[in-house]
Write a structure and sequence with these properties.
Helix content is 34%, strand content 13%. It is an alpha/beta fold. Strands 1, 4, 5, 6, 7, 10, 11 and 14 form an 8-stranded mixed sheet that branches. A hairpin with a 6-residue loop joins β2 (78-80) and β3. α10 (261-267) packs antiparallel against α12 (284-298) and α12 packs parallel to α13. The longest helix has 25 residues, at 330-354.
Amino acid sequence: MTLDRRTWLKLGGLSLGALATGADPTLARLFAAEERSGARADPDFSVILFWANGGPSQLETFDLKPNAPAEIRGPFKPIKTNVPGVHICEHLPHLAKIADKFALVRSLHHTRGEHSGGTHRFLTGYSSVAANLNDAEYPDVGSVVAKQLEGRAGEVPLYVSNTKFYGSGPGYLGPSVAPFMPAPNPLTSTGANAYDPVPLALVGATRAGLSIDAEGAVILRGRDELRRSLEALPRALDDRAGPAATFGRHQRRAVELLAGPKTRAAFDLANEDARTRARYGDSDWGRDLLTARRLVEAGARFVQCQATFKLRTETGRTTTWDDHSVNCDIFRAYEERMPSLDRAMSALIEDLFARGLDGRVLFLFCGEFGRTPRIAYQDTSRRPGRDHWPRAMSVLAAGGGLTMGQVIGATNARAEEPSDRAMDSNCLLATIYQRFGIDPNRLQHDRAGRPVAILPECAPIAELIGAPRRAK
């Protein structure tokens, strides 16, 4: 029997994890696991996570309820897509034309209703002890990927983000597996919900940090001096697990990456065809998603981007998707956001398929939870809004070698809770880990040395990795 490169890589990863957990790493077990799962791990698999921080409304995007009472349904109408029986919001016409290239999961849920707690629960799989935490207690999915794949790191960072999410981060794995961020804004990791969007694509203020011109050389030299200063600290401070050691390794890696031409080229949209840039649109989201595609093509394995948007002053004061009545008029906010969202996301999805990346790159659009079915009017202006709702949410998934052109699960008549295929949000993480070839039962060790499974017990979403179920 001849084994290809993919099988050998997977066998190697399984062996290391199996030795740590006491499993028997035999070929028979390997192939049996693949047969049960329905989808093989891919050594080149990558994820682009477009994170609607604040919580996007299922009722205004992918799970409209036109027959619900007026205080539930809102003013938007559903439109047909190119997949029979699947309908989405009228303000997403470009996505409606390519519904065969994405899947909608309408029945995920969890129990954390606060922003950072919900983000932590969704992206780590574990509930945090703290409710409003800036930094994660457990490692988020991107940091787990960076840790588990660190032996495969190339010139381009494994984990890239535009800025830090509120309630996320590497947790007990430490800063060495935090994302590389060109120019993060610390406000994004706090309870603030109004700040300028942080671009993933390079702009004038951040381009120098990835260049070798005079200004970029100063930036690189400063980082290298910091690295050498850390290395000169007394040995007592440089223990193997201490913050000085991990930070020093992180800084050394950052200098190496920033000096590399492949990383600089991936971030440089000037290298992209003008017609492609035009398809994505002249917007932050268009440029960011095009940059994300270039990064995964260059070798990044997990790219995440916070999807903030600056509304008109008369519409509201928030730049996140936290569409309470006191923050904005939710319906006007969606009317402003949707054209840019529709254009940028549809361009990326079409690009992934046209470039043959759909088999190994998974694009996800989601947030920490959904919004309340009942429209609220708490603001003195009596403008409409919706509040936090973790009991039901919608996720869009495209590519990743998964089964597209389907709707998985359903909510009840008011989008209050799942009525079919209710799934913990961890099922999405389990699906992602499976495609990476990461065993979610593999043990990591927290700061106290206690073994912790990567993910609590949860099965991957069978419809995504196997035959689709009929949409309801």
